[in-house]
C-alpha cells in the first residue's frame, strides 16, 4: 500500500516537473517570438524611415528650385525648418542651411603651395574665432598650404609630424574633400575644429552670401591683400550694423548695403569685386524620416544653381 502511494507521489512529482519545463519552454518561445517580431517591426520602420529621409532631400531640392528671386535670406521659405511633416505612416523634418556664407578653406592656397586670397582671410578668422595671435593663426594657414601641395617629392615642414604619429600617414596633396578631413591637418585638433566648423566649408566656389555670412567672416573677408596692404573699411561696429539690418530685411541687391546704419557708399570698397553677393549657391540639407520608433537621418550638399547633388549620406 505504501509502495503504491510512493509511486503515485513520484508520478505526480514527475508530472509537475514536466509541466514546469513545458511552461518554461512556452514562455521562452513566446519571449523569443516577441523579440523577433519587435526586431522585424523596427527593421521595417527604419527601412521606411530611410526612404522618408531620402524623400526629404528631394523635397529640399524642389524648395530651392522654386526660390527664383535674386537673393537668398533665411526669412524666405527655405530658411524655416520644416518639422514633423506628415508623410505616409510617419513624418519627415527638413532643415536647409546656406553654406555660401562660410569661408571656403580650399581657397587658402592652390595645389602648388601658393597662398591665395583666402590665406589672409583664414588667418584673421582663426585670430577672431580661436583667439590666437597672428603667428599661431599663420601656422594653421601654412599647414593647409602644405597639405594642398600636390608635389609629393617635396618635403614640407609638416611631413615629419605626420610620420611621427601612430598610426602615421602622409599629407593628402589635394584640396579637402569633406570638412572632417581638416582634423587630419596639423594643428586642427577637435576643439579648434568644432569652433571653426560653423564658419568654414570645403564645397562650392569662393564667393560668400552677405545675407548669411557670420559677422566674423564678413570682417575677415576684408583681408584679401598681403599683410601691410589691407585696408579696413568696416570696423567691428560697421559689421554689427550690417548684421543688424539683415535680421529682418534681406539685402536684395548689393546697393542695399548702403541702407545699413552708418555704411553709406563705403560698401563698394570693402571687399574685392565679385567676391561677395546676396545669393547662395551651396546648401546643406539635413532630413529626418520617422516611422513609429524608427528614425533615419540623411544629409546632402546641393548646388542650387545646377540643381546638383554634390554629396549625400544616410545614417
What features would you describe in this structure?
The structure is a single chain. The protein is 39% helix and 16% strand. The protein has helices spanning 2-66, 118-130, 134-148, 159-164, 190-196, 215-220, 236-245; strands at residues 82-87, 90-98, 103-104, 200-201, 208-209, 276-277, 282-291, 294-303, 308-314. The chain is α/β, with parallel strands linked by helices.
Summarize the structure.
The protein is an alpha/beta fold and 315 residues long. Helices cover 39% and strands 16% of the residues.
CATH architecture group name of the domain at 2-100 and 282-314: 2-Layer Sandwich
Helix tally equals 7
Strand proportion, as a percent range, falls in 15-25%
Structural class: alpha/beta
The number of distinct β-strands equals: 9
Q: How helical, in percent, are the residues?
A: 25-40%
N-to-C order of helices and strands: HEEEHHHHEEHHEEEE
| Largest sheet report | 5 strands, antiparallel
Shape: extended
Compile the SSE list and pairings.
Blueprint: H1 2-66, E1 82-87, E2 90-98, E3 103-104, H2 118-130, H3 134-148, H4 159-164, H5 190-196, E4 200-201, E5 208-209, H6 215-220, H7 236-245, E6 276-277, E7 282-291, E8 294-303, E9 308-314
Helix pairs in contact: 2-3
Amino acid at each position: 500500500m505504501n509502495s503504491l502511494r510512493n509511486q503515485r507521489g513520484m508520478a505526480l512529482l514527475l508530472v509537475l516537473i514536466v509541466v514546469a519545463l513545458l511552461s518554461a519552454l512556452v514562455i521562452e518561445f513566446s519571449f523569443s517570438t516577441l523579440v523577433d517580431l519587435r526586431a522585424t517591426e523596427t527593421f521595417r520602420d527604419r527601412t521606411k524611415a530611410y526612404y522618408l529621409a531620402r524623400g526629404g532631400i528631394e523635397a529640399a531640392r524642389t524648395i530651392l528650385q522654386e526660390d527664383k528671386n535674386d537673393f537668398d535670406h533665411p526669412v524666405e521659405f527655405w530658411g524655416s525648418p520644416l518639422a514633423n511633416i506628415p508623410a505616409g505612416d510617419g513624418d519627415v523634418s527638413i532643415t536647409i542651411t546656406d553654406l555660401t556664407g562660410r569661408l571656403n578653406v580650399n581657397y587658402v592656397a592652390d595645389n602648388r603651395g601658393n597662398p591665395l586670397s583666402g590665406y589672409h582671410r583664414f588667418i584673421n578668422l582663426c585670430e577672431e574665432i580661436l583667439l590666437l595671435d597672428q603667428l599661431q593663426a599663420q601656422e594653421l594657414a601654412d599647414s593647409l598650404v602644405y597639405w594642398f601641395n600636390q608635389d609629393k617629392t617635396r618635403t614640407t615642414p609638416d611631413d615629419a609630424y605626420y610620420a611621427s604619429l601612430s598610426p602615421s600617414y602622409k599629407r593628402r596633396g589635394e584640396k579637402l574633400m569633406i570638412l572632417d578631413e581638416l582634423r587630419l591637418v596639423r594643428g586642427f585638433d577637435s576643439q579648434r575644429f568644432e569652433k571653426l566648423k560653423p564658419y568654414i566649408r570645403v564645397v562650392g566656389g569662393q564667393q560668400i552670401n552677405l545675407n548669411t555670412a557670420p559677422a566674423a567672416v564678413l570682417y575677415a573677408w576684408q583681408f584679401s591683400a598681403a599683410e601691410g596692404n589691407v585696408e579696413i573699411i568696416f570696423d567691428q561696429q560697421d559689421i554689427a550694423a550690417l548684421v543688424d539690418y539683415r535680421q529682418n530685411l534681406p539685402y536684395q541687391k548689393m546697393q542695399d548695403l548702403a541702407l545699413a546704419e552708418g555704411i553709406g557708399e563705403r560698401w563698394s570698397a570693402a571687399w574685392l569685386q565679385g567676391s561677395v553677393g546676396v545669393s547662395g549657391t551651396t546648401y546643406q540639407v539635413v532630413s529626418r524620416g520617422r516611422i513609429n520608433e524608427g528614425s533615419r537621418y540623411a544629409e546632402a550638399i546641393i548646388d542650387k544653381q545646377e540643381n546638383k547633388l554634390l554629396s549625400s549620406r544616410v545614417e
